Amino acid sequence: MKRRSDTRETLTEAELIQLFKEQRFEGVPWKIVRAIIVTTIAWLIWKPLGTFIATVALLDSREPLQRCARFWSGRTAILVGSIVGASAAIIVWTLVSYAVHSIWAKCFFGFFGFLSAGFFGFGINPNLPRRIRWEALVGAAQMVSLATYVLATVIFWLWFFLQKRP
Known about the structure:
It is built from 8 helices and no strands. The protein is mainly α. The chain has one domain. The N and C termini lie far apart (86 Å).
């Protein structure tokens, strides 16, 4: 008697790669639309709440980035990390500059933005020698993302303080 798993054809390597590529960005457009709508509604209710929701929405980038990491090269990991860090900094500090005026609130949102910039590396194997290739690339991209976020934050704060001085 044949089992159902015996009658199913196995996929070739090319078919598996094609399947992975098709599923890389599955559900991403709806996540972006949902994040924009919820952030806009929260922004209209209370600006700091909108800023917080937008920063939390950045955390949704983890799953698609980790799915894409299997196809990255070393340069691509550095580029992705730079883009994620810079875009997180731009989004967070642009919203913070309009939403809050307290220096403590800006520090809170800045720290929370730092966490969201590096969150896409969460869940990979913490044991460096045992990481497989894509986990190592996600880890490298995460470090570049955090460094880029810190650099963009320093640039923002310099611009902020130089703008206030006559």
